[in-house]
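ERR on first pass: missing label on line 2. Operator R.T. fixed the label and resubmitted. Corrected input:
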Amino acid sequence: MYDGDLQADVQAALGTSELIPLITGGQKLVFTTELEGIPVVAKVILVPEGPHADEVLERARREVELLSTVESEFVVRVLSEAVEIGDRPEAVCWVEEFLDGDDLRNLVGTFPWEPSEVWSLLRDVGAGLAACHELDVVHRDLSPGNVRRRADGRFVVMDPGFARHLTKAALTGVYQPGTPGYMTPEHVPGGRPTPASDVFGLGILAFQALTGAGPMPYRGDEAEYYRQLRNGQAPPVASVRADVPADLASVVDRCLQRQPARRYLDAQELLESLPSASDS
Amino acid sequence: MSVLIQDGRRGGHLRWVTQALAAGLADGVIISPFHTPRVSIPRHQAGATVSAAVIAAGGEAVFDASTHARLLPGSDDVLHYDTWQLWGPSGIGLDSDAKRLEHLERVFARQREMSVPTLAPTLTLESPLGQAADDAFRTAELARGLDPACWQTLAGRRSFWRAGSDLDAYIGQLASLRAPCWALTVVNDIVVDNVPDLADTEAFSGLLRTVHSLSQRARVIICHADYAGVPAVAAGASDIGAGWDRGMRFFDPRSFQLTTPGIQIPASYVTQGRLGAVLRRDTGDAIARLGDAFATTLRGGPMPADDTAERSHHLRQLRDLVNAVSGHGVARPGRIGELRNFYERSMADFDSLLTRLPRTTLQESSRMRWVEQPYRALKAYAEAEGLWL
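pass 2 clean. output:
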């Protein structure tokens, strides 16, 4: 445990004003603050002692590197480099743009949504993912906690901390991240993420937004969950909610094909299949 | 497209091929460096000459570098193969970036010289997991880097096609390369006769599932398949590799070995089009004795008088079946239904024949291997897809 004044050190290292805790507890801390008078978010990753320290540090560095490379209004922007705190180091921190609105995690209670909102979700998150895929980067952990709906209705992808650069795959080794209930068939141990995995993840979010429930929910039994992911097929969205427009149901169903070759192969292909905002 | 003639080493191959193309019995040719030299020698035309002749005859020419055959243990019949000089200073194999790049550059260069599509080479895979599968993927990926429009190959033993969700995941990776055409091969461990062996229902339904997936966005060719490849057409493939000799109809490892006991010529066989089977000529004669009209119907035409006539008859029967199945367009239920009806009628015909002919003339195993096994594979695949209607 860091025995210094972490908040003060982070504030000094990043050059921000006072840090106001937004999310604390666990390995990742989030603060709201200001940088040169502009509202921003300071993110801090605590680096554990022991064999996982390098992995955590590397993942944080990669998240910042990735965010600074991706150019999309649908992916949260990073405003600083990754700065290490302490000698070991004990933490790594950086500044991101402040996003108003709310995470989907806090909006689950508002499901099911109208189709028009789900079209927007597909379009915006699809655009964010497409910006990642263009750089051969797979997000790998798309979940309600990693998508934010801003006050203007725009959806933004966040926290690509587990993202995998397909040409730097060794960085993440065999470890597969993912949030139970939001994993893809490629998350099952031994699997390999591809951009089509993110398409599946977006399909889960869209399905849940339309129906109020996930297509392949996690019920506490990991083995059974993995078996379902490997061998099962998500139900057609129309079988759960009959009034979903056929074109929207078709898109969501294709995202959720168990076999990646039968999905949209990446977010750009998904985007190209979507009707324009004025038509949906 | 529908039937592509696989390469063969008999002296008259090119003449037979161009005749078949001119007669509308086939649509193209798959040239192999094992059977066609790069530089012409007596009785064997150079690859560029073959491709030019095929194209001039209105056919499609494809050069399959057959790397998945070359890298099989025991593949040592390299007299023609070595004339192509497909490997660089780093040596033979696809287990390093240097070897892959050198090989791909040479294969693509040869294909461009022949004015045929660039078709990337691959390895024979036992499993979609492991180093070999990684090497095959990296080869495919590198090929795409060299030529984004290149076609791709995929070759696997039955264990590969039987790998279930691991196979599906691997196919997902490959599909991400967006190849416009896939040439798939089921690599047999051994071929003991001229009869298909689709006993491994799980493996062949895996192949059909793969064809279904890849054909949603690409053309799919099933190499060395002949009648055994027709279920893949039902699953979405557009072409099958076929021919008249064993090494053309089946991927037979012995076709690439010096120890092969000469050319296997199925001269004493007759294709029974309505049965979807190639039976011994003495069986064909016995069927003819049951009634000329009946026998003609089963054969799909008059008794071929000789090998030349049987080659044409075989291609015509096979192509008609392929076209009947693919004639339903991209909708798989129609394709599957067509082939299902064909197999069910064929099994009924076989049942009738089995009661009327002595067991020494026609065995139950013929029915099993020519019709029932492919039917089972088709059914297993279609049921899993919800297409067995």
